Amino acid sequence: MYPIELPLSDAPLNREKTSISPATDRYQLFLAVYHRGELSLGDYRKRLGFSAYHWSILVLDSKHDRYHAYDVTDGSSPDPVIRRDLNPDFQWTYRVKNNVRPESCDSLLIRMAIGEVNDGIGPETIKILLQSIQLPVKSAYPPQNCVNWIRAVLHKLRFHGYARDLHNIEMTIDRALAYADLRMSDPDHSVALVDHLGNEMLQAICMK
Question: Among 71, 81, 117, 183, which is disulfide-ready with 56 (CB 3.0 to 4.6 Å)?
Answer without folding.
Answer: 71
